[in-house]
Amino acid sequence: MKIAFTVPRYGEDIVGGAEELARKLAENMAARGHDVDVLTTCARDHFTWKNSVPEGFSELNGVTVRRFKAETNMFSAEYAEIHQKVCNREVVSYKDQVKWISGGLSSPALYGFIEKKGPEYDCLIFMPYLFGITFRGSSVYPKRSVLLPCLHDESFAYLDIMKTMFEQCRNVIFNTHPERELAQRLYGIKGKGTVVGCGFDKVAADPTRFRSEFKLQSPFLLYAGRREEGKNTPLLIRYFCNYIHKTGRDLKLVLIGSGKVEIPRRFRHVVVDLGLVSLSNKYNAYAAAECLCQPSVNESLSIVLLESWLQGTPALVHADCAVTRDHCSRSNGGLFFRDYAEFHECLDFLFENPDIRGKMGGNGMKYVEENYCWDEVINRLEDALKCEQSCRTR
Amino acid sequence: MDVLEVHDDEVNVQEIMDQIQKRIEERKKSGVYSEEVEELLREDISQLNKEPESFVDSFDELGYALQQANSHWHVTGSYPILSRHRFLAPFLVLGKRLIRLLVRTYVDVIVQQQNKFNSSVVRSLNTVNKILEKQSDSHLTHFNYYAFEEAHRKDEPVKQVQSSFFPYFKGCENVLDIGCGRGVFLEFLKDSGIGARGIDTDENMVLHCQNKGLKVELSDALCYLESLDDESLDGIFAGQVIEHLAANDLIQLAMTAYRKLGQGSYFIAETMNPQCLAVLSQFLVDPSHIKPVHPELMRFVLDLAGFRNIEFKYFSPYPDDIRLKPITVDESLPQSQVLSSQILNENIEKLNRTIYGYQDYAVIAVK
Fold first, then answer.
1. Per-residue pLDDT tens for B107-162?
2. Looking at beta carbons, which residues of chain B come within 8 Å of A371?
3. pTM flag (> 0.80)
4. Averaged pLDDT for residues B18-39
5. Tally of domains within chain A
6. How far is CA B74 from CA B81, B104, B122, in A?
7. Structure ipTM over 0.95, yes or no
8. Which residue of chain A is at minimal alpha-carbon distance from B40?
9. Which of A347, A392, B198, B253 could form a disulfide with B177 if both were Cys (CB 3.0 to 4.6 A apart)?
10. What is the CATH number of the domain that holds A107?
11. Residue A232 buriedness (CB in 10 A; 0-12 / 13-18 / 19+)
12. Domain topology for B146-366
């Protein structure tokens, strides 16, 4: 099969769940013997979409990467006005919705390439759902287009243009069942959509090395990923500081990943911000942590949760995220909190019952090994790409 | 995709969550988590974030305010003109632009004057800040001593050294631990039924000790001692403190401690041993150290204050793998060579005593 993944940013050093998922799927499809291209932009930074990588094509781990110039209208007053309305869930006309999604990130050069070369591909995969290149790109040849939305329950998902896009694509690939249920509820695409997910390879990790390198002797709770309001990082820091203040427990919160983070002065000795760490240190951190905390309520898969389970580390997730909560319930590998009281009691339970905590980590590992091995994932992806159901002519 | 679930006879997340919910309900009844728990939490955190009125915190606050002032001093009279009206938008925008054009001459004059004023104020504040920064070097404004201690001072060796001071405070009811740090010695005394309290100038240390249930206050040693009644203490311990004091403060500490101790009570100060040369490089690791204190200086200062029976104890010898190694003396060799080897070994031993001797010492004095 000749296939193309269309994704806003691409590269080994790009931080982001969807971007990482795109790279892993593309590389594993190429390893299976498919002819895989990636159509992406020259941008590395999703705050400015500044073109910082040259145009043209290159090869990365068996995948041909074609880069096109990114364009954005994000900083115009008109975009800001519509964006505000969309965030506030105000009524926005269909025309303005199109203006908004095209204004965020677009790439006319990329659309031109799809227009010209699209028919040469058996399938064009677009991901994630929130960008102009997904909306506009998938509308060029909808019969060949498969959407991999990484959908969240957020204001943007409720726009009419999303319903159009989900309906017109040949098939939709979801990361989890709750994500698929959300799409069915929002867009009524009954019978359409395949749950594929992502594969995870077990990586050898050295927890002792992590502890000695970063001088961490106390047990610690780990947060991994982008640190921002949308990921609920400030909430986690607030809850954790309060927990330490109330209990005086010998416990730290270690934060790894990109983005700025504000730590109350009196708790700078218990909240350790390591910033971006190397890939090997990320796995070492998973293995060294007593527990991983994923407070985000906007997850469509949560790669960090599954990666840390694979290192045998149990989890604590936000109960308002259907996806991570579902993972915990099905795996018996983690607990969930909705407010401070639950956060406090869950931490008390985990640290007062080390045996159960260890078993939960083991359960999580088993869950990932059984559901997210690459062979199975690629088989499911191949089936989803061949799927002709709900086809519509252009 | 059919998701394979993991079933575990011993771990059922749903059951655990039910247990947790039950526990929360019970604790709510006893008033632990009120209905407005989130609101309370916000209050707690705002309390935790509340800036104490210390020099260090005021300095941080000033830095933040200056950063804001530097970003926002420049004001402008132009901004995008928009209209939300669907049909009249082009006319409204045109009208607004016309008005702006007409008043621009007058507005620009005010904006220029405002910018001139703002820039001179911000420049002045930056200059004042620079002067303050230069003067504040000795306050170690941004140094987190708690984190530093945690990385460089392990509890176990500290416990080992401090256990030898325990007999001097046996039966005491009011011992003061000056610079109690993370409260290792205080815990020791508490577990042995000795009445003790501590003071420290680092708020993180104090918070840490209070969380452990120890009686600790945030205070400076000299101010705190002055506030006590004379002869009200029956023991004073100061572990790794005196090297943080200037000479005058050290003398004042000895004299005040003498006044506050009851007859026959002990004053013990433990510090790094400057007679061991390798320790001097260790001394430089901590930026809050002022000067190593030689045992002979301590003897002089305590003697002057009135203390008697002044004795010294030495601790923490450098381990053998760090010390210089002696050579093996082969007795079968000619006498002159055996003699040379013995002299060499004696010299190695002298060097070991001078360079790699005891890392710490304690001075023990009685009132």
1. 888 988 998 899 889 888 888 887 776 665 555 556 666 667 766 666 667 777 88
2. 1, 3-4
3. no
4. 75
5. 2
6. 20, 17, 10
7. no
8. A340
9. B198
10. 3.40.50.2000
11. buried
12. Rossmann fold (3.40.50)
